[in-house]
Amino acid sequence: MAIQGPPISLRKDSKPVPLMDVKEDAEALHLIQKEDRLRLNIGCDRTEIAGFVGVDFNPDVDPDVLAEADHLPWPDNSADEVYASHILEHLPYGNEALQEWLRVLKPGGMLTVIVPDINGVYLMSKHHGTWGPYNMPITEIYVNATAFGASLLSEIVPEMKDLYNGPGHIHRQIFIDDMLLLRVQAAGFSGAHESPDTFLGPAGIGDRVVIAYKPTEGA
Questions:
Q1: Domain 9-116+175-213 falls in which CATH fold?
Q2: Where are the domains of the chain?
Q3: Nearest-angstrom CA–CA distance, 82 and 198
Q4: pTM for the predicted model, two decimal places
Q5: Which of 82, 147, 187, 209 is most buried, judged by most C-beta within 10 A?
Q6: Where do the DSSP E strands lie in 6-67?
Q7: Which run of H or E residues covers position 179?
């Protein structure tokens, strides 16, 4: 069962807004904005990416499209790209969301999905790693927050209570080692592989990235 959210609706004033100027790459930003493609940023929260339509179930974050991650208002084979960063772990266990993203992608369309890398975060805690703009040490509670949700950190950083105590911020499943890769493959994607980076740049600390594609006819 999907996380409950408002009925689907479309904003009339939808427009692309750059995220950190696409890592300050003006040429990449220009190429993204001029292409006539449908790119979806699923579970966008307050993140805006140039050339992407932001999709979220929470009206408080003012997404371009208000919709559930596993029930999208687009027909089959209509999207060129799906980007889903730190959303899959918030959804109930199963392949429904991945299969929905496969449905809306055109044959050959690309999926980029990112989830927390619990093993990586744990190892960083053993090597005196730090996290975020707070430059705080990665401790046992941070490892637990990676597994169960960032709301656990609100006692350490009070302002995070407003950011991560809202609807949908609890983690409902975890991905360790190749679990994400295997789940993407099981959903029907081809060419699935782990990657150290995305089109926005290197993967963040504690991120596990899988890139895959919708099979083309005859593939």
A1: Rossmann fold (3.40.50)
A2: 9-116+175-213, 119-164
A3: 12
A4: 0.79
A5: 82
A6: 9-10, 39-42, 52-56, 65-66
A7: helix 179-186
